[in-house]
Structure formats: structure tokens, C-alpha cells
Amino acid sequence: MLIAADLLGLEAVGRVAGATVTVLAGLQACGLLGCSSSNALADTVFPFIARSETLQEEHHWHMAAARWLPLLINPIQVEFSLAPGP
Hints:
The protein has three helices and no strands. It is mostly helical. It has one domain (about 1-80). The radius of gyration is 17 Å and the shape is elongated. The two termini are about 25 Å apart.
């Protein structure tokens, strides 16, 4: 439901700003890819966090996931920034 509301909001704001439907679709695709990669990473790391015996080990796995997020999301964002067209 939030994704649909976000898409409708982007369309309304995009029309006022003069953005094309293609640019808005690219932004939406980037957001979905970012969410899916972060969800996959969280699903991968969660068993290790749950099995952690110490707070330090738990923190280690949280930080490992946090370090991987920019590596998964930033290349997609850079690509859409450099070539927002189709």
C-alpha cells in the first residue's frame, strides 16, 4: 500500500516538476531494488544475529550488514543519476 501511495505521490509531484513518466518509473524501480536487496541482506544476516552469544558478536553482524548496504544500493543510484532516461 505504501509503494502505491508513493508512486501516486511521485506522479503528482513529478508532473508539476516536469519529470517524465520514464524518470519516475526509474526512481520507483531504484527504490524497489534498494528495498529488495536490503531485505535479502537482513534475511541472510538475521540467523547469525539470533545465534549470537555476546553483544559484541551481535554488534559485529549488525555492522557487517550495514557495511554491505551501500555496496548494494549505491551503484544502482549512481546509474540512475547518470542516465535517468530509458
